[in-house]
Amino acid sequence: MRVLRALLAFLKRDFLIEVSYRTSFVLQFLGIMFSVLIWFYISRVVAAPPTTPGLDGLDYFAYVLLGLAFFHYLSAAMMSFAGKVRNEQVTGTLEAMLVTPTSVGTIVLGSSLWDFVLTSFKVVVYLLVGRLAFGVVIHLDSLLSCLLVLALTVLAFSGIGILSAALILYLKRGDPITSLVASLSALLGGVFYPPEDMPAWLGIGSRFLPITYALHALRRALARHRGAGAVRRGAAASRAPGVPLRRAQGARRGVAGPVLGARTEGGYDPPLR
Predict the structure, then answer these.
(1) What is the pLDDT of residues 9-50, one digit of tens each?
(2) Does residue 156 fall inside a structural domain?
(3) Positive or negative, the Cα torsion across 155, 156, 157, 163?
């Protein structure tokens, strides 16, 4: 009960700080709407068919919308711990908290709790805008499975976030770990385009990123109306990135084809000049 009261106190503190800057709070959600609108028009230019390898049977806009929404959880898990520690250092409250009877684990968790709550609101806004404004179909039948996948993914990346916070305490400055992992996850994890549509030497890196398998499962559950069993099978049996796949019917060039070289059955064509 004492830990719960401490966590609620942290949550209330950060909420009051956040809403005290009302303009910044509102602009965050306006930014989400602009971001969704930008990717909607980009998807009209790309026009990748749902049969493109790696799109999981979705159109490109729905693929990016889900990837972008849940990428916020990865960012929160990795950056909130270090960001909060650095902020407490700057304001001079870190030492005062550490000398209280509250355990270090409670302080670390409580300091980042608001970021996860705010991220959850942002994800809901992403999905609502996509559904109401652009007609993206979201199925909630497998919501429990989605929450389980999401929790495991957040735990996997929270370890990196805690390591980053430790480096902040030691170095007193930013660390390169979170930026590197976040950049690799955005590039290779299937957030903006499928790793199956990349050259083998580049797409193989997505095998080592937890977000790759998490996004496969979340997209199958939320956008393709799969049950819990199908979500587990989809996450485990999804094609290994970088392995040559058959060319999609009617789509000789994939999403990344014009940039990195389009896939053919025997290898990769050079990009168009």
Answers:
(1) 999 999 998 888 888 888 988 999 999 999 999 988 887 888
(2) yes
(3) positive
